[in-house]
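Data card: per-record layout.
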Amino acid sequence: MSVHQTIRDVTDRITKRSEKTRRIYLDRMDAAAKQGVHRTALSCGNLAHGFAACGAGDKAKLSDEITPNIGIITAYNDMLSAHAPYKDYPDQIKAAAEAAGAVAQVASGVPAMCDGVTQGQPGMDLSLFSRDVIALAAGVGLSHNMFDAAMFLGICDKIVPGLVIAALSFGHIPAVFVPAGPMPSGLPNDEKARIRQLYAEGKVGRDELLKAESESYHSAGTCTFYGTANTNQMLMEIMGLQLPGSSFVNPGTPMRDALTKEATRRALAITALGNEFTPASRVVDEKAIVNGMIGLHATGGSTNHTIHLIAMAAAAGIQINWQDMSDLSDVAPLLTRVYPNGMADVNHFHAAGGMGFLIDQLLNAGLAHDDVKTIWGSGLHVYAQEPKLIDDRIQMEPAAKESGNENVLTPCNKPFAKNGGLKLLKGNLGQSVIKISAVKPEHRVVEAPAKVFHSQDELNDAFKAGELNEDVVAVVRFSGPKAIGMPELHKLTPPLSVLQNRGIKVALITDGRMSGASGKVPAAIHMTPEAVDGGPIAKIKDGDIIRLDAEAGVLEVLVDQAEFDARPVATQDLSASHHGLGRELFTGMRQLVGAADQGASALGELIK
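The structure for this 608-residue chain is written out next.
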């Protein structure tokens, strides 16, 4: 099947736009790869330090030039449910490497914070910046120049994007991502949502809310709703950076352990020492990035990746933007219904056919590029498979041709929606993005007076005081990356949902973030320019009529333009948000960070 014309057009313009930066990047990676086994560049003293803690056998292997050495970058900690299973992965990887006559070393650990813990708390102000810290930390580990391939252990929100940026900075060696899988299904998502809303209305207490949350997030593994963490796993698979069918296998199972061992064997097979050299720089190209964006839309994935994908692509010299994403969304059908876009969870998605079925459908409909390199081989079609555990070894079999549950995962000829539900909004307020796959059609156009807040807490206080009982476009500003680090604003979802359920027309505009878990209220997010940069959002006044039309892609304040332009820019003393819980340590990042539509990176231009 030939690739859809729009997908070809978007890919071509990305390739043309990125021609110079991509060439600079590839030239650098090719030059690094030609240096050969990198341990040979180390002096005897360097090398002695590098294997001092190894056993005698590994020291002997690392002394030669033909034994591959895997560098493990791990985001393990035992507070995060998603990352707790990684405790035993280094030993599993080392054992699998040893069985293959190779070596593996933990090159470094990277921080891993949980937005679920910091949501609505001061620590959330560090969340977005943690992505760049993770990239830096992984870069430090790999800088020892000891490794022929790297394996990355990470799952959640900023962790995988940060690891990808690091992997691409070391793109002259292979990169294999190793998931840990989702926790088993707990309290049904519709019941969890019901209890949250009752709590927001004051109809149940904290004890009942905590009980519901604990029954939902109940064991080791990734949270089972389709937020940023599980979107990360989808992306790593459809972009060819982890094994086919490995994204959503539960922790602590024989299949999970076998996949980790198989990932190790594959990492060893694709080093420069073998016949299948597959450096990360050649896996992540323009077509792989487009496949990632298509996967994002087809699954209704997290809007956080409207930021992260831009930063990840930039690390490979590839320039993408929100218009690219919006245009691809127009032709990518929505094929999944996973919470918050439905009541199922990722375990149900996996059981219905999962990534293998999804990729097979997209390829057969001409909605993804097949001619890509992956860690598993040439062509995305090798991911239209699912793993089976036979005699303790992984064997791949063709993916199912029919969905096991069309209420959760549907074929391309019967999509849940004709497009992916992500829209670029433009107008006299700048530009922002909105995800409407969970927003009912009758709520996608809102024209109402503005009510301006300078924090999510101000809005919540107004809701509790009964001040939001009429049609409203809530404007929450001074929440952008330069202002306070662009925290998630999920504390706003319950009160805004309550207002909508009361029949009030309601929408949100913010220069902050609300990920794919934001739900059914229309939310224009990631507004740029942000308020602290003097963006038009800083000129909005209470009572201004704002029109948000998610169908047409328009967001504008209906005020005489000359009058609006002449208004002074609002300011806000943000000093209270710049210290405490480590926020003072990130002063430099707030000063360096770019705009949301450029990836909100504090790392500067990686490719010049």
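Known properties of this structure: DSSP finds 23 helices and 16 strands in the chain. Residues 183 and 221 are 4 Å apart (CA to CA).

See the next section for split statistics.
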